[in-house]
Amino acid sequence: MGALFSAGPNKECQDLESSFKDYIKNFREERKIISQETILLIESRLTRGDIQGTHSLISGILERIDNVPLNIAVTGESGSGKSTFVNSLRGLGHEEEDAAPVGVEETTIERTPYKHPNFPNVTIWDLPGIGTTNFQPKDYLENVKFGEYDFFIIVSATRFRKNDLDLAKVIKAMKKNFYFVRTKVDFDLQNEQEFKPTTYVREKVIEEIRNKSLKEFQKNNIEPQIFLISNKDLSAFDFPILMDTLLKDLPAQKRHMFTLSLPKITEAAIDRKRDSLQQIVWLEAFKAGVLATFPMVGIIKDNDVEKLKASLHQYQVHFGVDDASLQSLAKDLRVPVEELKAVIKSPYLFDTEQDQTIGEKLLKCLEVFCSANGGLLATGLYFRKIFYLQFHFLDTVTSDAKVLLKEAYSRKH
Fold first, then answer.
1. Mean pLDDT, all residues of the chain
2. Do 90 and 116 touch, CB atoms closer than 8 A?
3. CB under 8 Å to 97, separation ≥6 — which residues?
4. Using CA atoms, how far apart are residues 205 and 106, in angstroms rounded to an integer?
5. Buried b vs exposed e over 329-352: b needs ≥16 C-beta within 10 Å?
6. Which residue(s) pair with 333 in the sheet?
7. Cα dihedral across residues 4, 6, 12, 14: positive or negative
8. Beta strands of 116-217 (E only): which ranges?
9. HSE-CB of 144 using CA atoms within 13 angstroms
10. Distances from the Cα of 137 to the Cαs of 163, 173, 179, 237, in angstroms?
11. What digits encode the pLDDT tens for the residues 112-153?
């Protein structure tokens, strides 16, 4: 190990640098949770043979990623579906504890913070619609503490009004990102089909709604992306596109927490969460590996088992496969929770046969995982078994989340 602390680069450092570059390039730019500047800084330290500096740098990155705050401002007039949208971003139903009140007449000019139930660093601020206040756009932004938000979402259920357009102009002038969301598109389609059954064409109606909104903005020299959504079915229309756009526009260090906080409405959203968590696991493994290489030998210790149990539970919560989430889904689908558990694997990863220890079971999981993934995950870098098993657990929970998504879809349609 002493060779790793020698002045200047050596074979071990070159292997580590090559491993780092090979792994990072697996992810598209908009999915990376560390910036290109940080990536180059890590590579530079490895090139110089600065192992201790690399370890400290990665440790700091991981700590910041876990603690970075994200503040999202949502504004719109009363009745626009704003509160429902806030709850949707938080993965909450209207009747759940701490949900934003829906269907209540807006009478306050105070902003209201709503923490994400699983990620307290993510706060969604329900702002009063500018049409419900006496403030001009600039004064309005000052009153709701404009500088605290990472971006703004302006919500409307019918058409965007002059106040919305004026607000967007001021936000743009202050160099903040804003996005227009047109809600209740499902109601528009339903009404159109009911009143014009012989001429109704779904795609044509959607195009008309989008073009009508765009014309309002073009008259005011604004060229926005407009996202059409249904709060009742987030997987329909533009909600997934909106989430992709927000993630792409966010700084890299804020993507991880936002990715984990988003609702699991499509397989793509589930894969995005897996990619983000994979990077965390790999960075933790890499951080351990730069100070000491560990061949895959030895037994799995009790404290390793406890760490793995904690990691598995965390993944299950992130993907909605934990006991509480399964109970909620079973209630929503009106099926016994045992029926859902029967189609997934992660709840049984620590179950063992009578003559088998947990350590032996985990080693068997490790053997299967490595054979399926071609052995070492990074050339020249030995990961401890605990990291391989975390990857295995993450893959299992990801698969479970997709199975439950399909199960819920098939039962509801």
1. 82
2. yes
3. none
4. 30
5. bbeebeeeeeebbeebebbebeee
6. none
7. positive
8. 122-128, 151-156, 177-182
9. 30
10. 7, 12, 16, 30
11. 999 998 899 999 999 887 767 677 777 888 888 888 999 999
Amino acid letter for position 183: T
59 alpha carbon, distance to own chain's centre: 22
CB under 8 Å to 198, separation ≥6 — which residues?
Answer: none
CA separation for the pair 78, 282 (Å, rounded): 45
Number of residues that this document lists for the chain: 413
pLDDT tens column, 254-293: 999 999 999 888 999 999 999 999 999 888 888 877 765 4
- Mapping DSSP onto H, E and C, the string for 61-124 reads HHHHHHHCCEEEEEEECCCCCHHHHHHHHCCCCCCCCCCCCCCCCCCCCCCEEEECCCCCCEEE
Cα separation, 247 vs 276, whole angstroms: 12
The overall longest dimension of the chain from CA atoms, in Å, is: 79
Residue entry with tokens 């479970």: 400
Instruction: List the structure tokens of 229.
Output: 């959504």
